[in-house]
Amino acid sequence: MGIKVKAIERNVAFEKGKQKWAYVMQADLYGQLTQSKVIEEAAVRSGLAKQVINAAWGAIGAVITAWATEGHSVAVPGLGSLRFGLNSTAVEDVNKVSSSLINRRYIIFVPNADIKEELAKTSVNITCYDRNGKIVKQVTSADKNDTGEDDNKDNTNQGGGTSQGGGTSQGGDSSQGGNTSQGGNTSQGGGSTDGDGNGDNVDF
């Protein structure tokens, strides 16, 4: 089973009154596994009791919460690592620096190499919709080059939900609008970057 993607025809013209139609692709989020379902599946695959998995799940979550919020990068077994980041307003006068300048806090997830490799080799199923919502084409791609490290050079979210707020980001990404960062990665908004150029920001 491949990754489901939607290509929707949208007006991408930035000038008012003008039209420029193009197909913009975005991930099709078609399902969500609840915690109970994840624990149930983990119990089946490991042979351990659900109570044991549930206890371990809770303990790992508590460790991640405690350490990540103290500024540590915390390993998530089998997945990657989590750390916190923030966006804040920049000021020239050191006397004006205070916690009130922080306008966004978020968690940065950096996947491990195994997950990125699995993602790179997974086929992609694309459903194309015209501007009226009608399906006009379906494409299945097994191209291993359609995902990978090059995606991180331009992490632009064309599917919507980008932000261009001001301020300084210490979480490893730089938003447009004069923000600076400590991670070296550039994006339009706070949605999909990390300090290594491979992570995803999650607000909390």
Mean pLDDT: 76
**Beta-strand segment tally:** 11
Please tell me what the overall shape is. Answer: flat
Which percent range fits the helix content? 10-25%
Order of helices and strands: EEHHEEEHEEEEEE
Structural class: alpha+beta
Question: Can you summarize the main beta sheet?
Answer: 5 strands, antiparallel
Low-confidence stretches: 144-198
Describe the structure.
- The chain starts with a strand and ends with a strand.
- The longest helix has 19 residues, at 50-68.
- Strands 3, 4, 5, 8 and 11 form a five-stranded antiparallel beta sheet that branches. A four-stranded mixed beta sheet has the order 2-1-6-7, with no helix packed on it. The chain has a two-stranded parallel sheet with strand order 9-10.
- It has three helices and eleven strands; from the N terminus they run ββααβββαββββββ.
- With 204 residues, it is α+β, with helices and mostly antiparallel strands.
- α1 (35-46) packs across α2.
Overview in brief:
It holds the Pfam family HU-HIG. With 204 residues, this protein is an alpha+beta fold.
